[in-house]
Design goal:
It is a single chain. The protein is α+β, with helices and mostly antiparallel strands. It has 2 domains: 3-109, no CATH class; 127-216, Orthogonal Bundle (Arc Repressor Mutant, subunit A). It has 5 helices and 12 strands. The chain has helices at 97-109, 127-137, 147-153, 160-168, 197-206; strands spanning 3-6, 12-15, 22-24, 35-38, 43-46, 51-58, 61-68, 71-79, 145-146, 181-182, 211-212, 215-216.
Length: 217
């Protein structure tokens, strides 16, 4: 079961087993808490400038999206989990940035979308991580790169491990397609989702790849 934690009331956060991701929840009165601190980034967003969209029953489990005025902040792939009776999907009009992102992700998961047209808030990311994620953002549907290839493109061939570290902390998976980056031998490695490599394999197979023994065939 998920664990409910009070992290300096009135902020209420929800952590899922096997992931460091945190997400906002709705109270039993179905009202959003006054503010939500994204613990991974140590940022505080007032409720008036934070947009939330959630889908519990996507093909890869629970997805929750947070967006601010400057664009997407995070995509939390929380995996499959029991749904408490007083929690529900949180959906907003597509004009809302979180709702727009959720709609596009659902189209992608249904096999009817091959790219995204969304603004991303890069402001909380460090320079190297931003470089890595912006390069990863350009990998087309159905293609892939290795960590080493990205390191070479960034001008530092010895930085493949650092590239992997930056992608392991990708706050916006799927939109920034870190699932399209693999080891030099084709092996699937860490993916920033609760179900890890299982989710990464699902996404790569959706895009037409064959995976055998957690490696690209």
């Amino acid at each position: 079961m998920a664990k409910l934690l009070l992290d300096s009331f009135p902020t209420l956060s929800l952590r899922f087993p096997g992931t460091k991701k945190w997400q906002i929840i709705r109270s039993r009165t179905q009202k959003l808490v006054p503010e939500y601190r994204i613990l991974d980034k140590r940022l505080t967003y007032p409720a008036s400038s934070l947009f939330i969209a959630r889908k519990w029953d996507s093909p890869i489990g629970c997805i929750e999206i947070q967006a601010g005025r400057r664009g997407l902040i995070s995509v939390n792939l929380a995996g499959r989990m029991p749904l408490a009776s007083d929690w529900e999907n949180v959906a907003f009009p597509a004009s809302n940035p979180a709702g727009q992102a959720l709609a596009q992700i659902m189209e992608y998961l249904a096999g009817s979308r091959y790219g995204f047209d969304l603004e991303i808030d890069w402001s909380s990311m460090r320079p190297f991580q931003t470089e890595v994620l912006k390069r990863t953002l350009k990998i087309p549907f159905g293609e892939f790169l290795t960590y080493g290839q990205i390191a070479v493109e960034l001008g530092n061939p010895a930085a493949s491990r650092a590239v992997g570290g930056a992608l392991a902390h990708n706050p916006i998976p799927i939109i920034i397609p870190c699932h399209r980056v693999v080891a030099a031998n084709g092996k699937l490695t860490w993916f920033s989702a609760a179900e890890g490599i299982v989710a990464k394999q699902w996404l790569l197979e959706l895009e037409g790849h064959t995976i055998v023994g957690e490696k690209l065939a």
